[in-house]
Amino acid sequence: MKLFNKKNIAITVSFAFIGFLIWSSVQFQAFFAKIVPLFENLTRDHALLSIFVFIGLGALSTMLSSFSSTPLVPIAVIVWGSNPAALYLLAGWLIGDILSYIIGYYAGNPILKRFVSLDAKIDYYRKKIPPNAEFKLVFFFIMSMPSEVPNYTLGTLRYNFLKYFLTITLGELIFAFVTAYAGQALIQKNYILFAGEIALLLLFFSYFFYLFNKYLKAKK
């Protein structure tokens, strides 16, 4: 397995690219200025619905490897503010995490097996992580991987749900607030802070993946 996982890196780089467009492209700034009032009107007219939609998109992003709601974070920060946006993002991610865990938990059922398939990466980590894995190993795993990988993997391992929930909540809490404040820095055009938070996300992914692999090797 490679040191960097592709989805987390791709999401972070795309977030940085959006920031570059906002700062450097007059056309993109004009487009952004047009769509933000549309979202503001939508949230004003349908306050609860817009929150539920954002939370739902966050849930989907933790369940599907091909989708991410992160590019919507700058708009969410403008509409709701950084702290509410982070909490809505956290709520969506946790809902998707739990649903993924439940699907993984019951994936061994012959009926569910027809609808849930485990890719090579999940099968690989199922063989590496014991069902009674220590907190450190699970935390490193969650912090270094796209959410769907640890969620489905730990579910299929029947890992203790309470330990799973506490660990995934801690991991998602960190990423939700770093992502929201990166979105705020992007909107405020705080170049140094935005670049620092993007670098922090990349550092998180790479460092925790390094710790995860080091821990696995030490346990052999």
Account of the protein in words:
There is one protein chain. With 220 residues, the chain is an all-alpha fold. It has one domain. Helices cover 78% and strands 0% of the residues. It has ten helices and no strands. Helix 2 packs across helix 3, helix 4 packs across helix 5 and helix 5 runs parallel beside helix 8. The longest helix is centred in the last third of the chain and has 28 residues. The two termini are 16 Å apart. The mean pLDDT is 79.
Number of strands: 0
Q: Radius of gyration, rounded?
A: 18 Å
Q: What percentage of residues falls in helices of 4 or more residues?
A: over 70%
Along the chain, the helix and strand elements come as HHHHHHHHHH
Overall structural domain count: 1
Assign an overall shape.
globular
Q: What structural class do helix, strand and pairing data support?
A: mainly alpha
Query: What is the count of DSSP helices, taking H or I runs of 4+ residues?
Result: 10
Low-confidence stretches: none
Strand content: under 5%
Separation of termini? 16 Å
**Biggest sheet descriptor:** none
Rounded mean pLDDT is 79
What is this entry, summarized?
The protein is 78% helix and 0% strand. The protein has 220 residues and is mostly helical. The protein has one domain.
